[in-house]
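S.,

As promised, the nicotinamide-adenine-dinucleotide run. Input:
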Amino acid sequence: MTAATIIDGKLLAGTLRKAVRGEVARLSRTERLTPGLAVVLVGDDPASNIYVRSKAQQTEEVGMKSFVHRLPADVREGELLTLIQGLNNDHRVHGILVQLPLPSHVRSDVVLQSVDPEKDVDGFHVVNAGRLAAGIDGAMVPCTPSGCLQIIKSIRPHLGAQQALIVGRSNIVGKPMALLLLAEDCTVTIAHSRTADLPSACRQADILIAAVGKPHLIRGTWIKPGAVVVDVGINRVTDASGKTRLLGDVAFAEAVGVAGAITPVPGGVGPMTVACLLRNTLIAACRSRRIDIPDLYLTHAAMRNCEF
Ligand code: NAD
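Predicted complex:
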């Protein structure tokens, strides 16, 4: 059996970041505008700390301003809301990201809905979710599904008539992913924890997206031969020797012999998520000044040049 193409998310993300960097330089030259991204981190969760550091570093690398606000784990919800209100009004800040998860005493919904929808680069505000669902221009599209779509289109530029299955129905990944694939003319199914026969549903899918959070839930025998498999899952597991490893939701070693193309974990969806965050920040900065938004969706030709 031929092995699947292993999709190099790092390479794709590097190509997208380069395009963003070029546009940031142009904005600064021609418009005297430097996009700014504010990241709010509450508490000291080690994984969140790593993500925030990496986002700040990549923001600066593309020439944008990075503002990181660290708050203690016991911060009052009111204080957090006041900070976000300040960022909403700060003209140097074009994008605001609140790193999840928040501590349990803080209402995540209230906090996320307090972000100005025009600065909501995560795309979690109901205004942006509504625009995406209704197909209205101007939606800020959540970064992970946006990155997944680019990954899929690097392999299959035309998705009409494809059967797509998304495993997971979260507001962050599963639901917006379904809407994006629907807009690409896929026939879309969403599976979740109560789906009766997940293996059969998977076997129908030309495009399979796993966004569950259960290590190796999806087995090689569940995959339709030749399918494009995108593994969103990030599961930290400790092996017998005490070493921590990251595993996806798909049993990669089994799936690689059946799928047509597959993303690895790590090095697949994760890097594209951050690159799409930078693209959203650039878009938000352009909108704030009514500047035409550059077309930063990687063309199939550009992606083909990323040889996997
Ligand atoms: P979530 O917990 O909000 O949602 C998980 C979904 O999986 C739910 O809809 C649930 O119904 C479904 N599910 C649970 N058990 C199932 C089962 N046995 N069979 C079928 N469906 C099942 O999670 P999320 O925020 O959508 O994240 C999912 C995974 O993706 C996590 O591992 C998360 O860490 C990862 N993630 C990665 C990135 C990235 O950039 N790579 C971004 C976001 C999330």
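Residues 143-269 form a domain with the Rossmann fold fold (CATH 3.40.50.720). The chain has two domains: 31-120, 143-269.

- D.
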